[in-house]
Structures are given as C-alpha cells and as structure tokens.
Amino acid sequence: MRQETSQTSAHIRKRMRADKRFKFYGLSALCFALAFLVFFFVNIFGKGLPAFQQAEILVTVHYNEAAIDNYNKAVDRKEKPLVSKTWIRLVPNQIEADPTLLGQDIEQWVLAENRVDQYLKGHEGHRLKSKHQKMIDQMKDEGKVRLSFNTGFFSKGDSKLPENAGILASAIGSVLVLLLTMAFAVPIGVLTAIYLEEFAPDNRFTQIIEVNINNLAAIPSILYGLLGLAIFINFMGVPRSSALVGGLTLALMTLPIIIIATRAALRAVPESIREAAYGVGASSLQTVWHHVLPLALPGIMTGSIIGLAQAMGETAPLLIVGMMAYIPEAPGSIFEATTVLPAQIYTWSSESLRAFEERTAAGIMVLLTVLLSLNAIAVKLRNRSEKSW
Fold first, then answer.
1. Could you tell me where in the chain the CATH 1.10.3720.10 domains are found?
2. CB hemisphere CA count around 343 (13 angstroms)
3. Which among 52, 199, 311, 323 could disulfide-bond with 250, CB atoms 3.0 to 4.6 Å apart, if both were Cys?
4. pLDDT tens-digit profile of 197-215?
5. pLDDT at 2
6. Which fold has domain 168-385?
7. Is 97 helix (H, G, I), strand (E, B) or coil?
8. Counts of helices then strands in the chain (DSSP H, E)
9. C-beta separation of 142 from 107 below 8 A
10. What is the pLDDT averaged over residues 336-360?
C-alpha cells in the first residue's frame, strides 16, 4: 500500500515538474518574442526618426541674368557645394514665375546638400570634406545652419538625391491601388461567398471550388504577380506600372481572403434567424438580404479590412507588374505609371547612400502606422459588433 502511495506521489511530482517546464518554455518564448519586437521597433525608430529632420543653410541667393543662364551662379562659389543641387536648379523657374525677383540678392534658408545633412546629424560616413566641415561649424556658430522638420518627406516624390526624396508619389499610388483593390475585390468576394454559403448546392463542383479557394489563400503572393502580368498586361493590355494593373493584381490576391472571411461571418449567424424569416414568408433572397447579411456585416467588414491591410503591405506581386519605376511625380490617373510605399521602401533600401537608409526606416514607420491603424479599426469593429447568440 505504501509502495503504491509512493509511486502515485512520484507520478504527481513528475507531472508537476512537467507542467512547470511547459510554463517556463511558454514564458521564455513570449519573452523572446517581446524582446525581438522591442529590438525591431527600437532599431527602426532609431534609424527613421532623423529622416524627419532636414538640414537647411542660410545663404544669399542671386536672382540675376547669370542665374537664368547657369543656375550654379545663383549662390556664391564657396557655398555652392553645401547647397542641394535640386534647390539650385529651381532658381530659373522661380525667376520665371516671379519676374520681380530679377536683380535682387535675397538671404534665405535653402535645402542643404546630403553630406551636410548627415554631418549635422552626427552620422559616420558623411563624406563631407574637412574644409566644408569647418565652414559648417562656423556657420553653425553664426546661426546660419539648422535642422528643421522635413516637410519635403511628405510633400515630394522620389529623387536620386536623398535630401529631396519623399513619399508623396508612392503614398498617392498606394491609396489609388488600395481603392481599386477594394472596389474590385470586396463586391466580388462578398457576392461569391453569399452564393456559395447560402444558395449553391452541395455537390462535387462546389466542393472543388471551395477547396481551390482555400488553396488560393495560401499560395505565395508572387504567383499573383505572374498571373496579373499574364492576364492584365499581356492579354488585356492594361498599362504596365499603372495603379489599375496593381489594383487588379492585388484584388486577385485578396479575393480568397475576403471570401473565406465572409463565409465565416455568414456561418456565424444562427440558423434560427433564417428559420424565423422563412416562417413569415420571406424568400431566400429576402432572408439573406434583410436578415442574414446585416448581422454578418461587421464580420465581413473586419475580414475585408484585414485583407486590404495585407494587400497594402505586399511588394512581390507589384514588382512583377512593373511598379518599381522611378516616379518623381504623383500620378494624375489610374492609367499613369506609379509606385507604392512597399516598393518605394525596397528601392531606397537598395541605394548606397547613407541618407537613404534613414529614409527607408522612416518609410517603414509610415507603412507600419497605416497597417496598424487598419488592423486597429478591424479589431474595434469586431469588438463593437460582437454578439452572443
């Protein structure tokens, strides 16, 4: 009897040790995941925050005939290497837009060259010559150098010069692509799910369709890019690199997700709702349209938002359809060449200049903010509309 009691106690102690080990493994995995997440955000924010500041210097700009013929004459020779070439090139355009500037010498704050910007931010590898470093230090003592908020990051498109590069064109392109994706994917996906869940007969054909929809939701996204290239560009002749071809391609990728989410939302509506509608003489269409669909709408919206958020963060399918073009200006229509934020971030990450690294991180911060906002909206919709049946 004592031997059996001893064996039972040993078995209980063994189980308790196993439970403790399992809890320890789970807590360790959670701590590791949190540490990785903290490291990721600290790294991204540490690199990206400097991009929201841009160096400016106070120089005398010469608005004269010489500047019209040669924009390099717009500033003094010793200060010219410190001023961004992008800004100097605009001087003739400024004179053309405002002829009253001609003949004036105006002291004003102008965009500084990339190496000056990196030097003021204390980054290594700025490659600013020693004589120019002394000039900047002297101008800093005189109050002629400053770091101001980088409005150009949000108001300008891409540029080969990092001090002039911004996300405006890619942000507008992302909005256009996302709107087109939503316009094509949501109605088709919801109607498909309603038919399959409420009206389609349970036969071999519909079972094959359901299996394929589930499989399409799991295949690599780059395959949708190849499909978009074959159908929309090569066959239908949609302009390459346009927001239209990007929206159609992402709509294909998002369709299975929306269909699956919509079917799950419809399936969550109690059968008693349908039976009550049928009991008062409603047809199948009236039952679905007036009773089932309104109750399933919050779940449908949540699934659609999550699907669109995933589409917004995709890069691979858009690379295949040519949305990696150099786009300095925002597109004027859905048929013009454009790019999107993920593709813009990828382009900047492949540049060799140090300043593009901080702009890459800043672009990731903007993209993460949008994606987290979309997911937060989806969670809020789900929590507000969640019902217990």
1. 168-385
2. 29
3. 311
4. 888 888 888 888 888 888 8
5. 57
6. MetI-like fold (1.10.3720)
7. helix
8. 17, 3
9. no
10. 87
